[in-house]
Amino acid sequence: MEKTTIYDIRADLKAKRDALSLAHEELKKDSDDWNKCVIVLSLFNGMIETIKIQLQLDSDGFRLLPIFISSIIAIISSLIKFRDFPAKMEVLIQSQSLLTTTLNKYRNHDEVDKDLVIEYNSALEKLETSVYPDVRKKYLQQSHKNLLSIMKLEQKYFKNIELVNNGEKPEDDTLSSSSSEKSNPIRGDDRYDDPATDL
Questions:
Q1: Residue 99 placed within a domain
Q2: CA 88 to CA 119: how far, in whole Å?
Q3: Considering Cα of 39, then 42, then 44, then 50, what sign does the dihedral take?
Q4: CA 55, CA 70: separation in Å to the nearest integer?
Q5: Distance CA 127, CA 62 (A)
Q6: Quick check: is 4 in a domain?
Q7: Angstrom distance (rounded) from CA 20 to CA 23
Q8: Does some domain include residue 1?
Q9: Domain count within the chain
Q10: Measured in Å, how far apart are the chain's first and last C-alpha atoms?
Q11: Which long-range contacts does 87-94 make (Cβ < 8 Å, 24+ apart)?
Q12: Containing structural domain, residue 123
């Protein structure tokens, strides 16, 4: 779908930037899990060696166990190197940075001009070369769901502010359940200042 208005392009850039952030988050978690596995196995191997020395265990099983664990560590380390997590995360960070920069420029403009279109197309090209299409589809779906949920929460939040300012009870009654508001109940003539007006 072609985006022509500046508002559509802003929303598109935000969704794609968040999709890259989600992809980076999962990739980093995957990398951390593998590295944690290596650390745990290395510590366990060291513990086995210490026990062998302290208890003077010389059976064939205790001799072979450290070798077996070391082989597993070597295999996992090779897999980590093969998957090249740092390089993949670096590509995602660069693409995310470009999308964020482009998004900030669109936020500072009211109309789309030729230069903005060029930067938008460059950001899209960077995104498309950063991840495979099926991966991009997966994280874009998550990003769209997250952004819609955030927008719904914001609409509800500002609607509740308006209700409270008018002396009415907000739809979400979690405010009245807090201990601070039990000791200081909201009166009908109390008004909330809109945080947006303080910016």
A1: yes
A2: 23
A3: negative
A4: 21
A5: 51
A6: no
A7: 5
A8: no
A9: 1
A10: 34
A11: 88/27, 89/24, 89/27, 89/28, 89/31, 91/130, 92/20, 92/23, 92/24, 92/27, 92/130, 92/131, 93/24, 94/126, 94/130
A12: 13-173
Check residue 172 and give its pLDDT: 61
User: Per-residue confidence of the chain (199 residues) as pLDDT tens digits?
Assistant: 677 788 999 999 999 999 999 999 999 999 999 999 999 999 999 998 888 888 888 888 888 888 999 999 999 999 999 999 999 999 999 999 999 999 999 999 888 888 999 999 999 999 999 989 999 999 999 999 999 999 999 999 998 898 888 888 887 654 444 444 444 444 444 443 444 434 3
Does residue 57 belong to any structural domain of this protein? yes
Contacts of 192 (CB under 8 A, 6+ apart): 161, 164, 165
Q: Taking each helix axis as running N to C, give the angle between helix 60-83 and helix 85-107, from 0 to 180 degrees, rounded to the nearest 10.
A: 30
CA distance 115 to 66: 62
* 120 close to 9: Cβ distance less than 8 angstroms: yes
Place of tokens 């513990």: 47
Helix axes 114-128, 6-55, angle to 10 degrees: 30
